[in-house]
């Protein structure tokens, strides 16, 4: 009933090919954006921004990035943490070396630098496939984290080995450092995420995205019909690393404010983002958001439930959380390999027929 | 020269340790085509169970080992029932991700049941330097590592025999080629999976004992699995011999690089050296040293 599309006729190709061809979807997205841009900044408090909303948005960007590589192009990567570190350190170096640089330019450049590094580590993907490649991307993970730990130039020879974000402003509004207001940070990250998600969605629907999916589904067949495997895989690595790099830069500069490579960008980050896209749904942009939301909210909810409400120790809660995370991965792979995005789709189809199931 | 020799031998021995973990991987991959990311955590879990049984119930070592073998077998049955059976015929990459989930479950469960503090494993394995070599040639070789090397050799011989000469071994190889084809010629997939995961559990236990006796049973044990991955890439996923040779190459290369190259680039290159070595090697031989050639057609 809510989803009945009877009477919605498309009279042009543009309308037929729109991102949201159904009016209900357009209204829903418009309402969601209105809530995100207007209602949330007016109502949420600092804890919500810092513990839930900003991490969710930052991880969404990372999840979209990995989803492009793994979900759309079928190249399993376990190096996400390392690439996030590249983005973070690139933004740090840019911000300290060129304090006058516009923040948007800083983030774009950080993404581009990460893209270059990603392409470098993506080159073996032509010869190495499947598991071998997954293990090869681990080389990127360990090497990059080691590099940022050992070469003092990257952390500007600071005594602690940490990087701390300098204060920077965009259009007169302070966005980074301790002086920035959570609302400003939130709105900046939200705008970035909106733009990046829209770009990713369109890219996935374009020729590039179709090439990725052809390579994912069967690379040799794709090669025979004239898709160049190396170019396609490398664009996937480049775009994916671009997103992951921006996520890393946002995480360091806007969300955390300071970072230390072995803590913030270790291999657990790679797995966390991988879990996000498995649970959210491989090969969908929407799924990246679902997955990120779930993985950000789940630990907090579980901690509140177990430690505060039921009185378990934090250690036990942590172990249970790890177990639950693993169990959920297995559960989703068995029951719904297409993740929460598919559940959402099924829900919409049911709503279309509701209240009469047939 | 003596220092070089000592470095090489110590690398050789840690290579054998890596190979022990890598063996468990190869076993499951060879027999079912599943790339078991949880192998390292299985070693941790087996070690934790063994140490926990001895500590909490005061069991003698041999009884505790038997009990742990039983636990690992039960675990294999559970994994087959809960994780693998519903995923028959799925792409290998899905099965791989399922084992990542499994690794997290086992890690959480092990810590929850036995506690996450470091445990000392005391089951009477020889410790300290070998006196004979030390006195005669001034060479420092750990007895424990020698024992580990011998154990690994025996395990490999037994496994090679099992795969090549027995009926079950042949069935295992058929399953690895194609789940559904193996099912259709009357191989019982479920039994095969239980057998191979149980055997891999026992190999994990051996690896857990060796590593545990060396440096205590703690979380870092599961990270050894990450060290075993480049070993596998180098040796090839389907080859028992490859696991051993790869382990030795990585072990020696890593130690030598750390000692002779490390000081020039800031040290601690052990964390990535193995991966980069394996990555460069794969560019020239994508299936690893002893891996089966991948032939692909549409």
List keywords for this structure.
heterodimer; A: 358 residues; mainly alpha; two-stranded antiparallel sheet; 15 helices; 4 strands; B: 298 residues; ABC transporter involved in vitamin B12 uptake, BtuC; 13 helices
Summed up:
The complex is a heterodimer of chains A (358) and B (298). Chain A has 358 residues and is mainly alpha-helical.
Radius of gyration of chain A: 21 Å
CATH fold annotation of chain B? ABC transporter involved in vitamin B12 uptake, BtuC
Query: Strand-and-helix sequence of chain A, N→C?
Result: HHHHHHEEEHHHHEHHHHH
Distance between the termini of chain A: 13 Å
Describe, in plain words, how this protein is organized in 3D:
The complex is a heterodimer of chains A (358) and B (298). Chain A is mainly α and 358 residues long. Chain A has a domain at 42-266. Helix content of chain A is 73%, strand content 2%. Chain A has helices at 13-16, 23-43, 46-72, 80-97, 103-122, 130-150, 182-205, 207-217, 219-224, 229-256, 261-264, 267-280, 285-309, 314-335, 339-353, and strands at residues 163-164, 169-170, 173-174, 258-259. In chain A, the strands form two sheets. In chain A, strands 1-4 form a two-stranded antiparallel ribbon. In chain A, strand 2 and strand 3 form a beta hairpin. In chain A, helix 3 packs across helix 13 (285-309), helix 4 (80-97) crosses helix 10 (229-256) and helix 12 (267-280) packs across helix 13. With 298 residues, chain B is an all-alpha fold. Chain B has a single domain, classed as ABC transporter involved in vitamin B12 uptake, BtuC (Orthogonal Bundle). Chain B has helices at 2-32, 39-57, 61-84, 92-114, 131-137, 143-165, 167-177, 179-184, 189-215, 220-235, 240-260, 262-265, 270-284. The longest helix of chain B has 31 residues, at 2-32. At the A-B interface, helix 6, helix 9, helix 12 and helix 14 of A face helix 4, helix 10 and helix 13 of B. Chain A: Keywords: Cell membrane, Membrane, Transmembrane, Transmembrane helix. Chain A: Pfam families: BPD_transp_2 (PF02653).
